[in-house]
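Async update (no meeting this week)

Hi team, since we skipped the sync, here's where things stand on the single-chain job. The sequence we agreed to prioritize is pasted below, unchanged from the tracker. I ran it this morning and attached the output directly underneath so nobody has to dig for it. Comments welcome in thread, and please keep replies under the output.
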Amino acid sequence: MKKIIFTDKAPAPIGPYNQAVLSGDTLYTSGQIAINPANGELVLDDIETETKQVMENMKAVLEAADMTFSDVVKSTIFISDMNNFGKINGVYSAYFDEKTAPARETVQVACLPKNVNVEISMVAVK
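Output:
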């Protein structure tokens, strides 16, 4: 059985999908981009600020499912420019304990929704 997870503390979906789906003890999140949920505006000041907004959006989705970053077992990071990897990784790493960080892949893609620079999705298990 699946349960749809939604919070107004993260951006509403911009298509036919949900912020996350809980199936049993496993949470599957949709990718988050740097939309400020308070005003719907993109946060693109610089790559660090953009990544922080993405992670804060993800934090809100996890919390809506009664989870935290410590429950994350897998993440996927999509970036538009691999030259931003170090800066993105610097912000991302602040949300995890390095000893228990999730598995992850980071891939460069040709284009992301709304022409953002980073999108992150996660799988978490309670």
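Quick observations from my side:
The longest strand covers residues 72-79.
The chain has one domain: 2-125.
Reply here if anything looks off.
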